[in-house]
Amino acid sequence: MGGEERKKKGWLSDLLDIIFPRSCISCGDGVDVGPFRHICQKCSDRHVLYANAPHCTTCGYPFWGMAEENRSCEHCYHLRPVFSGGRTICLFKGPIRRMVHALKYESALYVLEDIAPLMERNPGMRDFLQGAILVPVPLHPRKLRERGYNQSQYLAEYFCKEANGGTVANLLIRKKDTQSQTGFDLKTRKENLKNAFALAPKMSIDLTFRYILVDDVFTTGSTLNACAAVLRKAGVVHLDVATLAHG
Ligand SMILES: [Zn+2]
Ligand SMILES: [Zn+2]
To answer: 177 and which of 30, 140, 159, 211 could share a cystine (Cβ 3.0–4.6 Å)?
Structure first.
């Protein structure tokens, strides 16, 4: 974007802010100061919890206040991940929980504008994504028709933009329309996800590249692990995962 264009856009968004004041997605108060466009200063200061180091090397969950090196958490030990490492920007709580809900169920794609300031506060995430090929976790065609978009695809595009490089590649398809996995244990989730994903037709893998699977929330990691298994089978050597939030 050229300087003139940027100036024009800034002026226009300032005007729009006056006509349509922005409100916080979490508490509803006005948002006029602070780094976020859709989360007020009070909510961001108190309730956005960043997953900075030290954290689990597999899922990114932070080890609060413990002076230890990065290592895998107990949960990830049971997951037996087929991907190598993982990072998440923040925890799936408060305003971020609202953000994901708005993104998935309210077509509120404007919340993605806050990916940039979130990532700024977790610079390790930006380094982690650098130069990789980002692969969104796919939606089943039925759900894609219903929702009209895949939120993980948008997230991957915003991650790419913020990481200054890399590309997004839709390498996977979802063959099985699995029901919501909430409430199921790890074993049942794994069973439900059996053969749920496949490599998209005519997609090829470049073994020299690093691939990162992208999803909105890391819950148990089973979905990401099922996707990772397909990519591994296709020959991917360098494979990690990245999420917006850890829940
Ligand atoms: Zn608020
Ligand atoms: Zn973990």
So the answer is: 140
* Domain span at 210: 23-246
DSSP state of 149: S
Does the predicted model carry a pTM greater than 0.85? yes
User: Measured in angstroms, how far is the CA atom of residue 170 from the centroid of ligand 2?
Assistant: 26
pLDDT > 90 in the chain, percent: 70
* 222 CA to centre of ligand 2 in angstroms: 12
Distance from residue 62's CA to the centre of ligand 2 (Å): 9
The answer to whether 171 and 205 have CB atoms below 8 angstroms apart is yes
Average pLDDT of the chain, as a whole number: 90
**149 token code pair:** 């978009």
CB 190 within 8 A of CB 217: no
Answer whether residue 139 is part of any domain: yes
Tell me how far the alpha carbon of residue 105 lies from the centroid of ligand 1, in angstroms: 20
* pLDDT tens digits, 159-181: 999 997 789 999 999 998 876 66
Which band of pLDDT confidence, cut at 50, 70 and 90, is reported for residue 7?
low
Ligand nearest to the CA of 99: 1
Residues 6+ apart with CB under 8 A from 94: 26, 43, 46, 47, 48
Ligand of minimum distance to the alpha carbon of 72: 2
- The count of domains in the chain is 1
